[in-house]
Specification:
This is MFS transporter. It comes from Streptomyces ferrugineus. It is globular, with a radius of gyration of 21 Å. The chain has 18 helices and no strands. The protein has a single domain, classed as MFS general substrate transporter like domains (Growth Hormone, Chain: A), CATH 1.20.1250.20. The two termini are about 35 Å apart. By secondary structure, the protein is an all-alpha fold.
Length: about 450
């Protein structure tokens, strides 16, 4: 990496729009593939793993065991975020993003080769180990992808370009559901459970050549170049980004985590928990459930960058807050509608998850840029990773908690809605804390306490 040697020239360079577009496109492709890999595990856990790896005489226990391994990946995400954040603050955003993609591709492909527990009794352990690797990888890629997009964008369009990294969430879910729908339609139920479910995992190998293409053609961000230039002139002030951000910005980390938890929980409950519920207890077919999840995620794809663009015009916190308020209002009605579904009446399920998708898009389109702007460039990778991935720990237990709250009785589904509404209220409280402290990031030579005051955006 070439950086200017004179500290007077170490300010971030201006970025032309074509470079911003290229960076945001690369971030969208990278996160789409990462989230595809991460989410197909949740889908497989909802449809297959309860019988292939965790079969018991009790359907609830089998589902809990299966979804517990989904949560394992979310627990590993902050560890990947901490390691990658430190590396990203020291060595750059791009190499961390590429490394995370390679780790995810290898781990996901290997999951497709894990034998059923009837064949190898250690199979569940192997599955959990590879899920941990998935968690480390997705934890590592998120902040790097968001910063590649936002730090390569002009200031007045950071919300729009930054939303493309978040666009990987619905795109990854769409890709995963399309592949599983094709696999389900093209095979018998017995063949699907026996071996066809493995095909979506093997497809992940396509990520390797894309990772090398990003490594070859994508430039490092201007803000990191400026930070690296200052560090080269003043090596004695280089410190661990993780320790610095925890020491000086703990409020920003916790506020970011609390504000984002509801979105992560609702997404997991929508794409995995609700699918398991309607296919297990309401006799809704896999194809019908996955089709409506696919439609919901497809709807989110144009909404995410649209709301990111709105955040450039009206402020991140306003758009983000509207998303939290929408989830607060929709949580209980959503889970009153879903139990009214059935094999001949899919519209309540469809309405419930489409409404959730619209509400989630308000936050998904703004959260990456909002979190990144809470931290100075010197520790931005570490801070953004921690804030987002702590929320991921709680969110990963969404499907598990859904099964536990319902406990085999469809009349208990409203409890899940109350949980979502409560988390949305926490999100609004944390957003108010962010507004009152008015956290921001400013390019500068050092981190000096909590970030200074700036505009309410």
């Amino acid at each position: 990496m070439t950086v200017p040697s004179n500290p007077r020239t170490a300010a971030p360079e201006a970025v032309p729009l074509h470079r911003s577009a290229r960076a945001s496109f690369a971030a969208a492709i990278a996160t789409s593939l990462e989230w595809y890999d991460f989410f197909i595990y949740s889908t497989a856990a909802a449809l297959v793993f309860n019988t292939t790896f965790f079969a018991t005489d009790n359907a609830v226990v089998s589902a809990l065991n299966s979804f517990a391994t989904v949560a394992v990946g979310f627990i590993a995400r902050p560890i990947g975020g901490v390691v990658a954040g430190a590396l990203g603050d020291k060595h750059g955003r791009k190499p961390v993003l590429v490394g995370a993609m390679i780790l995810m591709a290898v781990a996901t492909t290997l999951i497709g080769f894990v034998p059923n527990s009837e064949v190898v009794w250690l199979a569940p352990t192997l599955l959990i180990a590879l899920r941990l690797c998935q968690g480390l990888a997705v934890g590592a890629q998120w902040s790097s992808a968001v910063l590649v997009a936002t730090e390569n964008a002009p200031a007045h369009l950071r919300g729009f370009f930054g939303s493309f990294a978040q666009l990987g969430v619905p795109i990854g879910a769409v890709l995963g559901n399309v592949v599983f729908l094709i696999a389900t339609a093209a095979s018998s139920p017995e063949a699907f459970v026996d071996w066809v479910w493995r095909i979506p995992f093997w497809i992940s190998l396509i990520m390797l050549p894309i990772a090398f293409a990003i490594h070859r053609f994508l430039e490092e961000t201007p803000e990191f170049k400026a930070v690296a230039a200052r560090a080269a002139e003043q090596p004695q002030v280089q410190r661990s980004g993780f320790l610095e951000v925890v020491r000086h910005n703990p409020g920003a980390i916790l506020a970011a985590a609390g504000a984002n938890t509801v979105g992560v929980v609702l997404f997991q409950v929508t794409v995995a928990g609700s699918v398991q519920f309607v296919t297990t207890y309401l006799e809704v077919t896999r194809t019908a459930a996955l089709t409506w999840v696919l439609i919901t995620c497809t709807l989110m794809m144009p909404l995410v960058p649209f709301f990111g663009w709105l955040s450039d015009r009206f402020g991140r916190k306003l758009v983000f807050g509207l998303g939290a308020a929408a989830m607060l209002v929709w949580g209980v009605p959503m889970w009153l509608l879903i139990p009214a579904s059935g094999p001949d009446q899919i519209w309540p399920f469809a309405l419930a998850i489409v409404g959730a998708g619209i509400a989630m898009s308000l936050q998904t389109g703004t959260q990456g840029t909002l979190i990144a702007e809470l931290f100075p460039p010197e520790v931005r990778s570490s801070g953004a990773s921690l804030g987002y991935q702590i929320a991921g720990i709680i969110g990963g237990f969404g499907p598990f908690v859904t099964v536990a709250l319902i406990n085999g009785n469809t009349a208990n589904a409203w409890r899940v809605g109350v949980l979502i509404a409560a988390l949305a209220a926490v999100s609004l409280i944390c957003l108010q804390l962010i507004i009152r402290r008015r956290y921001h990031s400013t390019p500068g030579p050092a981190v000096s306490g909590e970030a200074e005051a700036l505009s309410a955006r």
